[in-house]
């Protein structure tokens, strides 16, 4: 009985023997990048520290490129609603591939995108920012608990600055 490795090698050899390029041999697969747990934690800690330094008691969530939470931190006096809101902001930023501050403006009641506000788990309040590296979204950060979306957004941007060197642009 041939191993899985032997079967793959035989299939690749057959494809290359037919004159197909190596890229065609792997068309059934794709590669994605995500934040490492260490980088996600560094982002969350830097974001929380920035907000804390400004006197804001917040929650910070970092999600992977699929919107799955990797890290959630809540400052000691962050409200109970802030955890869920931070996760949803990060999820929304990743899902719609834009920061939630801009998305909030784009989905106002008179806009054609107002229906986006009805999508389950989407929250269009400032404070969610996608994390990009090499032109791809690799995660998102969400902040909740500052006096407003502008302040949440600012903390998220400060956190991103802390990991810029960790991401290969």
Summarize the helix and strand pattern as letters. Answer: HHHEEHHEEH
Major β-sheet profile:
4 strands, antiparallel
The CATH class of the largest domain is Alpha Beta
What is the domain tally?
A: 2
The CATH superfamily of the largest domain turns out to be Haem-degrading domain
Number of discrete helical segments = 6
Q: Helix- and strand-based class?
A: alpha+beta
Main-sheet strand order equals: 2-1-4-3
Taking all Cα atoms into account, the compactness measure Rg is 20 Å
Q: Determine the fraction of residues in helical runs and give it as a percent range.
A: 40-55%
Give me the CATH architecture of the largest domain, please: 2-Layer Sandwich
CATH topology of the largest domain: Beta-Lactamase
Low-confidence stretches: none
Distance between the termini: 45 Å
Blueprint of the fold:
Elements: H1 4-17, H2 22-25, H3 37-53, E1 59-64, E2 69-74, H4 82-96, H5 100-106, E3 128-133, E4 136-144, H6 149-163
Antiparallel strand pairs: 1-2, 1-4, 3-4
Helix pairs in contact: 3-6
């Amino acid at each position: 009985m041939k191993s899985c490795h032997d079967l793959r090698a035989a299939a690749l050899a057959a494809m290359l023997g037919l004159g197909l390029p190596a890229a065609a041999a792997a068309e059934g697969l794709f590669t994605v990048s995500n934040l490492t747990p260490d980088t996600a934690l560094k982002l969350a800690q830097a974001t929380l520290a920035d907000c804390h330094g400004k006197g804001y008691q917040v929650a910070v969530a970092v999600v992977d490129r699929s919107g799955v939470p990797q890290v959630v931190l809540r400052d000691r006096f962050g409200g109970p609603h802030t955890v869920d809101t931070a996760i949803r902001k990060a999820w929304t930023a990743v899902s719609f591939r834009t920061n939630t501050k801009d998305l909030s403006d784009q989905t106002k009641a008179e806009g054609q995108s107002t229906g986006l506000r009805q999508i389950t788990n989407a929250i269009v309040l400032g404070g969610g920012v996608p994390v990009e590296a090499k032109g791809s979204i690799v995660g998102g950060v969400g902040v909740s608990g500052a006096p407003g979306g502008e302040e949440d957004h600012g903390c998220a941007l400060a956190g991103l600055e802390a990991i810029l060197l960790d991401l290969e642009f």
